[in-house]
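Q: Convert this sequence to structure tokens.
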Amino acid sequence: MENTITQITMIKECLTKLPSSTKFFLKPHPVVTLPQSLLRNIPITIITEPIEDILPMCDLAITSNVTTAALDAFLKKIPVICVFHPSKLNLSPLKELDSSLFASSSAELLDKIQLVMENAPISFCKPEEVFNLDSSLGMWLNLIKRQIK
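A:
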């Protein structure tokens, strides 16, 4: 929940500098109950639909650094900004792909949102650059064989 609170706090601090037409959707983790006071006076719509149903509605995904939703969005070619605390371990599945995807302050978040709004070029990768899609499962089979011996 700490990551979500950090994320919402940073978004709150950016609101006055974003167009008033900007809409935010929040899909909290299913086991997290957010305090209503945190969401007060923020134009955020809470959604519970599956991530694959939500992504087509999005121009940008702002995620915490501990969710695989960032990878879901990135592989669908939706720009992603991962919010993280610089003194904590970065567990983002995108951490090895591109450091420009991360924001550790409200100012950085605003800069990255504005870049996306200006249609700055973004480098996306192919799923095979992230996942080992070898259908023969050679690496797994070798691992299992070594364990059996």
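Residues 2-14 form the longest helix (13 residues).
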